[in-house]
Write a structure and sequence with these properties.
The complex is a heterodimer of chains A (767) and B (117). By secondary structure, chain A is α+β, with helices and mostly antiparallel strands. Chain A contains 26 helices and 26 strands. In chain A, the strands form five sheets. A seven-stranded mixed β-sheet of chain A has the order 14-26-25-24-15-22-23, sandwiched between helices. Chain A has a six-stranded antiparallel β-sheet with strand order 6-5-7-13-8-11, with no helix packed on it. In chain A, strands 16-21-20-19-18-17 form a six-stranded antiparallel β-sheet. The two termini of chain A are 29 Å apart.
């Protein structure tokens, strides 16, 4: 299981300390139900303190939570609370699902409110606008017109109060706080139009005859359109978090645990550490644990992207959210609630989605100054119209100022980066690629050189028997049985590879007598009444075994990055057994993908030059460094950086930690569900190097998307604001209507969110 | 016309002063577990004072349903949190050196400041 992630003792929320070395400091948090009065606090605390092993129990009445320190088991603590007349459940419970449901409910409610507000505003705005478009008089010249428009003005006011009050309250509160936001612009724009119209209605004589125009339709339409834009944006935003929703949805709601020798279904929140959990075929694994009975194939694709099910037997670790495909298994819960790998992946992805790459910094600076700047432009625009515009100058000034305020859209600028990051990081997580933050995402898109560690990165990191070349009528089964029996006493990695390989073939090991390891040569022993020799050329020569016909085969194997060893039985040569750390099946195609993307691929290894050369050649890498000591790896990264390369370093995240940290982007290759390796910017949950190409492809696509969004948002504001101010009027007689500006503004942020959503259809794999 | 122009320029000056130049003098001193409410696009209190070199836990309660209000960012502290609606979120601030730390929503439309001294 993950190393670094499980070493984390606490996080910034002050969650439970899991101090395994000092059980007296072990903290467990519970949510208390049924505590209605402050006096319950003492009762619950004293009940908990009476449980043997408890050193401290503190309840937070406001939050209805209790923190208990000590070595007492969670079940005993829950029982104590229940005996005191209350209910307790672990606060490590899966709250993500609840939070998600609550968020969806809140979003749904807000959507309904916005749509209702929109309908009411447009119900007034559309008829008024049509009336104006078909030639109806929008001016005030008679007393009856004054009366009619007064009624319309009051109706508009009720629309402003009912459908737009959130804009006005927000604007006022911001104003008193010396800040300004979108609400300020909308409130000022619609407010100015309405106020001017009311002045025309009440005091028509104050304005020139030509300027006695009312703009109630603009106010109502703008409020309606902006509410519509917000509602549609809310829907589109929901889709940007699909990836995280999918991850949260992986966790089942119940678990079947064995308590008092009975299997019972309980809520996932109630599963405790060390509970024995049953998972039947087709069911999802509810929490992380270690298999204690049975064996099965488990589908981990939802977390790692690895399409093939992984075999699990006693002692193997399984993680929450994966699906048990075949046999029924029992396992002991080792991580529950927020400690499971899945919960931590969700947490990490959420945090990454909320972080911003530096590309968005400029937009952030601009949006911080944007609203007051737009207000100033609106005033300048009005002054210019008043001083230099044609009659009726006051009407032109009002229209241009209103339109400037309404068309400006800081939201589009502000949303451009985070929306794309949200979708991009989610998309990567779907492919089993965990990106730590927005900055890593941005740098990954610029990588020019990629250093790959050999062992465990390009290769499997587990030596295996690759070739058995038989001689003198020996059979493979016979040879493997004898060699594996002989090597079963040795602890050499190559010996382990042979014994492992024999076990996989189901070979039964025999008894070994007179085992003798000969330094620098190999081993000898007696098995099944036969004298066996296993080792290098020298060992064979010492015992007069003729190798003449086999030397060439052995050399061929050596040049193929394999380690050949000779085996003889009763002084008769029996076989050459070659052991090698096999190259991962898809390393060659993944490296090709990287090279095709224009990335310089370099291999680093501590191995000897011959092996390194053979592996590099096999996977199509021209540049490699052999016999590199672990501490020299980061120097190689630095050397490349000095050459001007933006360097990605890929390793296992533990031995390569300094080099990963030194690189512009550190990629840690996990196996299975090893997640969140601290030194890495990007963690590949699947062992395949295709994750690298996927990560880079997703990063590039996301950056492209951000650039499109930023460009769109900049252009929109840069072109829209002068147009609204009327710069085209002197040349073409064009002046934008405030209603059109309202529609443009409402849909500009929707466009940004929708463009970010396009990333959802991005396919990372092109192999 | 002259009066209108002068009024316009004064308005511009007022905007610049009110939104950019004005420096509020008093920040509200808050303690552990004090609640900062986010409602109608505003944090209340929006300018808070904290002691230096001491970790403090603040609670943020979001009452504003708008998705804009969902995120809380404190860039200098690398904090970015999702605020659930109508439910207080505890944010643990590390011990900070004296200075000003802005906090805001994702689009920086809703803003506040922590003053550490």
């Amino acid at each position: 299981m993950s190393k670094a992630i499980h070493e984390k003792k606490h996080n910034q929320h002050g969650e439970a300390d899991h101090d395994d070395k000092h059980p007296e400091n072990l903290q467990k948090d519970f949510i208390i139900e049924g505590a209605g009065c402050a006096s319950c606090v003492g009762k619950i605390e004293s009940a908990l303190k009476k449980v043997p092993g408890v050193t401290q129990a503190e309840m937070n009445f406001a939050q209805r939570t209790v923190s208990v320190r000590g070595s007492a088991g969670a079940q005993d603590l829950i029982k104590a609370v229940e005996q005191a007349g209350y209910k307790a459940k672990s606060s490590n419970a899966d709250n993500d699902n609840d939070a998600l449901n609550e968020k969806e409910k809140a979003d749904q409610a807000l959507y309904k409110t916005l749509m209702r507000d929109m309908s009411i505003a447009l119900a007034l705005g559309i008829p008024l606008m049509i009336y104006g478009l078909v030639g109806g008089s929008m001016t005030v010249s008679t007393t009856s017109e004054q009366l009619v428009w007064l009624v319309v003005g009051l109706l508009t006011l009720s629309v402003m109060i009912f459908s737009g009050k959130h804009f006005y309250i927000g604007a006022w509160k911001s104003f008193t706080n010396h800040s300004a936001n979108m609400d300020t612009l909308i409130a000022l724009g619609t407010g100015t139009a309405w106020l001017y119209s009311m002045v025309v209605v009440f005091f028509p004589d104050l304005v020139p005859v030509m300027a006695r125009h009312v703009y109630f339709e603009a106010t109502a339409m703008i409020i309606g359109l902006i509410n519509l834009g917000l509602a549609l944006e809310l829907k589109a935003r929901g889709r940007t978090s699909e990836a995280i929703k999918r991850l949260i949805g992986l966790q089942p709601k119940t678990a079947r645990v064995i308590r008092n020798d009975k299997e019972i279904d309980i809520a996932i929140a109630d599963v405790l550490l060390d509970d024995i959990v049953r998972v039947r075929p087709g069911e999802k694994v509810p929490v992380d644990g270690e298999v204690t009975e049975g064996h099965s194939a488990v589908d981990e694709s939802m977390l790692t992207g690895e399409p093939m099910p992984v075999e699990k037997a006693i002692g193997d670790l399984i993680v929450a959210g994966t699906i048990n495909k075949s046999g029924s298994i029992l396992f002991k819960a080792t991580r529950v609630g927020k400690d499971t790998a899945l919960a931590q992946i969700i947490n990490m992805v959420k945090r990454a989605q909320n972080s911003k790459p530096s590309i968005g910094r400029m937009a952030d600076i601009i949006s911080a100054y944007f609203v007051p700047a737009v207000m100033i432009i609106a005033v300048i625009s009005a002054l210019v119209w008043l001083n230099f515009g044609p009659e009726p100058t006051i009407a032109f000034a009002i229209v241009s100022a209103t339109t400037v305020l309404i068309i400006a859209c800081p939201c589009a600028l502000g949303l451009a980066t985070p929306m794309s990051v949200m979708v991009g990081i989610g998309k990567a997580a779907e492919a089993g690629v965990l990106i730590r933050n927005g900055e890593s995402l941005q740098t990954a898109s610029k990588i020019t050189a990629m250093i790959l560690d050999k062992t465990g990165t390009i290769t499997l990191g587990k030596p295996k028997v690759t070739d058995i070349k038989l001689a003198n009528n020996f059979t493979e089964k016979n040879v493997m049985q004898l060699v594996a029996s002989l090597e079963s006493g040795s602890e050499h990695p190559l010996a382990l590879a042979i014994v492992e390989s024999a076990k996989e073939q189901g070979v039964k090991l025999l008894k070994v007598n007179n085992f003798n390891a000969i330094a620098g040569q190999g081993v000898e022993a007696e098995v099944d009444g036969k004298q066996l020799f296993f080792g290098n050329e020298k060992l064979m020569h010492e015992h007069g075994i003729d190798l003449a016909n086999y030397i060439e085969t052995a050399q061929q194997l050596a040049s193929d990055a394999k380690t050949p060893m000779y085996f003889a039985v009763d002084n008769q040569f029996a076989a050459i057994i070659a052991v090698a750390d096999p190259i991962k099946e898809d390393s060659i195609s993944a490296i090709k993908r990287l090279q095709k993307a224009g990335i310089r691929v370099i291999m680093l290894t501590g191995d000897n030059r011959e092996t390194a050369k053979a592996v590099a050649k096999k996977v199509g890498i021209d540049e490699f460094f052999a016999e590199v000591l672990p501490e020299e790896k980061s120097k190689k990264v630095q050397d490349l950086q000095r050459e001007g390369e933006i360097v990605g370093m890929t390793g296992d995240g533990i031995n390569d930690a300094p080099a990963l940290a030194m690189a512009d982007v550190g990629f840690a290759i996990g196996t299975g569900t090893d997640v969140a390796i601290e030194s890495a910017d990007i963690t590949l949950m699947r062992g395949s190097l295709h994750g690298l190409a996927d990560a880079i492809a997703v990063s590039k696509a996301t950056l492209r998307n951000i650039k499109q969004n930023l460009f769109g948002a900049f252009i929109y504001n840069v072109a829209g604001i002068p147009f609204a101010a009327g710069v085209l009027y002197p040349f073409f007689g064009l002046l934008l209507s405030p209603v059109v500006a309202g529609a443009a503004m409402a849909f500009s942020s929707l466009t940004v969110v929708s463009n970010a959503n396009r990333l959802r259809f991005f396919k990372a794999k092109e192999h | 016309m002259l009066i209108i122009n002068i009024a316009g320029l004064l308005l511009i000056g007022l905007i610049v002063w009110w939104f950019w130049l004005y420096k509020p003098k008093d920040a509200q001193l808050v303690n552990n577990d004090d609640v900062i409410v986010l409602e109608n696009g505003n944090y209340s209190p929006s300018r808070i004072k904290l002691p230096a070199n001491k970790s403090v836990t603040l609670e943020f309660l979001r009452k504003d349903a708008s998705p804009c209000a969902e995120m809380l960012l404190i860039p200098k502290l690398k904090i970015s949190e999702t605020l659930p609606l109508n439910k207080a979120s505890k944010i643990v601030l590390p011990a900070m050196i004296a200075g000003e730390y802005d906090f805001h929503c994702q689009m920086q439309m809703y803003r506040g400041q922590i003053v550490v001294d």
